[in-house]
Write a structure and sequence with these properties.
Layout lengths: L3 E9 L3 E6 L2 E7 L1 H5 L6 E10 L4 E6 L2 H11 L6 H10 L2 H10 L2 H5 L6 H19 L2 H21 L4 H14 L5 H11 L1
Helix pairs in contact: 2-3, 4-6, 7-8, 7-9, 8-9
């Protein structure tokens, strides 16, 4: 609805700012990344995302369109709300989040305050394919089959299968289907275990 706001910076805090636009002051919630990229001049332009709930309308602002798109991807994940997404963007540079998701780096995502192992895995599982497609990260695709195999192994272990037994089956599947997704590896492995 509101895609960007340009106006005079009236108030500046690490978590929110107020921009005077045509005589109306808009409170905009921001990440620390956006805060560090705010210009020194009074004239400011931020890309925005309007979050509408039953009891509130909250405007989130971003220094660039990439950060806004990453925010939108993060809030699309079940269990990740707007405040959690903003915390993620405040804790780690948006490019580092993108790389961590693309590489399946659960540790980096989990290192963010308030993000547990399950949420980190869900973020990677839900967003990895989208990140790879949208940002055309070719060098990651060559590593993805190994990462897919590791994720599949982890899932199979969670289901109660022995790692050695599951690893043999997953190796065979990955050799026969090098482009297999995590879901495909798990489905084929379940048939063979």
């Amino acid at each position: 609805m509101i895609t960007h706001i340009q106006g005079r910076l009236v108030e500046k805090n690490p978590t929110n700012i107020v921009i005077d636009c045509g005589g109306v002051g808009y409170e905009i919630h921001i990440s620390l990344h956006t805060f560090s990229n705010l210009p020194q001049s009074e004239n400011v332009k931020l890309f925005t995302h309007l979050l509408v709930k039953e009891d509130s309308h909250t405007l989130f602002g971003f220094a660039d369109q990439f950060e806004r798109e990453l925010f939108r991807l993060l809030i699309s994940v079940s269990g990740v709300g707007a405040s959690t997404a903003r915390t993620m963007l405040s804790s780690i540079h948006p490019n580092a989040i993108k790389e961590a998701i693309a590489h399946g780096d659960v540790g980096t995502i989990q290192s963010i305050k308030g993000i547990g192992a399950k949420t980190a895995q869900r973020v990677i599982l839900d967003l990895k394919d989208k990140i790879l497609k949208v940002y055309a990260i070719d060098d990651i695709l060559s590593k993805s089959s190994n990462t897919n195999k590791e994720e599949a192994l982890s899932a199979l272990e969670t289901l109660g299968f022995l790692r050695k037994q599951a690893e043999k089956v997953c190796d065979k599947i990955c050799n026969e289907n090098p482009d297999a997704t995590v879901e495909t590896i798990i489905k084929l492995a379940l048939k063979n275990l």
